[in-house]
Every structure is written in structure tokens, then in C-alpha cells.
Amino acid sequence: MIRSRMRPKMSDKKKARKCELRRNEYIREPSNIPEGM
To answer: Are 26 and 37 in contact (CB under 8 A)?
Structure first.
């Protein structure tokens, strides 16, 4: 994760959580991983 983007804001935390869930889905299905992740 990019440290400079991590700020104590609710919206940012929610976004980070969504990114984590999305990343977990990609890990489950490698075929869904887009280039650059």
C-alpha cells in the first residue's frame, strides 16, 4: 500500500478496505488480476 495515501480519514479507510477486498478476490481468481496490480 502507498504510505503517502494512508491518512486517518473515514472515507480513505473505507476505500482501503474496498481495495483489500477487491485484491483478495483477485488473489482467489488470478485470471481476474489486471496488469499493474
So the answer is: yes
